[in-house]
């Protein structure tokens, strides 16, 4: 059974101010984890994690990661660029890794001085046209100080997994040939500063897979360096480091990843006589995922062909189980020591039969009023929330190291829900 950073009495007390459901993040655990990640890559001068904003787009969390650990922001939309700007991540503290990108987002990223990570060869000219249309310069002198990166899709050269799919079926990135072509075009246009990116995994728990990704990028960087005559300042191994959602899964051995990439670097970069290359990553899930919890309450117990525990939370608070059939551990505070001798489908109230947090899950005997904690909700949790069926998104709280609680996002109200309607009485 998962150990929580709070107990039933804490939930009872906290829910007086913030009624369930709410998301709560454990600041101490987020800090300890960020420290560990940085230590694992301390061998690489200039190592940087760009927190994937989409995983937990809350400026309070982004600011904590920026102020205390120097984490940049990995952005892929206008809203995420603005959040990064507001927490003080501008310029090269932003990795703009988008796809199917609108012109105005390229312009915003350009104005912020972000590292622009292109998803497609046609986006190079599209971006230059978009920027020029705003009256901004795109001549060699305007390009020389900026950093551009391309996203490589290795296609059949690399296997995928369930969330991200097979690389050759994925919409992201350049083919190999397109990479050489685009870097040559950039060089000809006057670009002097380059990065190289790929992201082929999601929720990956095998350290070797991540190490192989770095190897692939180091070798490719050397090849492009050779053929196109450019130097790379960094390779960005993307996000995708997994977390152990299931009790039988093992956490990623991040120290092993650090050491493995170091060995690859020593032979493929340092050993090949290349200039030093910074290692960048843009992880979201492994930064906040295990340290966020969705706290809810049992509203009804229903017994028909199965037993159902209906919560006051629903898939608009955490969509992963409904979307991917994802497993999330469930803890019943105060009943941790009781045998899990009942089997429940744990549901929400949305009128969709896949609104289930767990299916046929052995749990201690539940009663209305019991608190339920759904673990590993700290990334791609609240962030994926939506309002279908008039269900509202919950508050987000930060549990500080001294035990105090800070509201970092209030719960939505019906007025928020109706705010875009212009109709008498609403
Ligand atoms: C989603 C995403 C990430 C973060 O992925 P995690 O699985 O949360 O680490 C990073 N980069 C890009 C381009 C993404 O789309």
Q: Would you give an account of this structure?
A:
The protein is an alpha/beta fold. It has helices at 8-17, 27-40, 59-69, 78-86, 103-112, 122-133, 140-143, 176-189, 207-228, 254-270, 285-288, 320-324, 414-418, and strands at residues 22-26, 48-52, 72-75, 94-97, 115-118, 147-152, 193-198, 232-236, 278-281, 292-303, 307-311, 330-331, 342-347, 356-363, 371-374, 395-399, 405-409. The chain folds into 2 domains: 8-12 and 14-20 and 290-418, Beta Barrel (Lyase, Ornithine Decarboxylase, Chain A, domain 1); 27-286, TIM Barrel, CATH 3.20.20.10. Helix content is 32%, strand content 21%. Strands 1, 10, 11, 12, 13, 14, 15, 16 and 17 form a 9-stranded mixed β-sheet that branches. Strands 2-3-4-5-6-7-8-9 form an 8-stranded parallel beta barrel, surrounded by 5 helices. The longest helix has 22 residues, at 207-228. It is globular. The mean pLDDT is 96. Pyridoxal-5'-phosphate (PLP) is lined by residues 52, 54-55, 74, 97, 199, 202, 238-241, 282-285, 379.
Nutshell version of this structure?
With 426 residues, this protein is α/β, with parallel strands linked by helices. Helix 5 packs across helix 6.
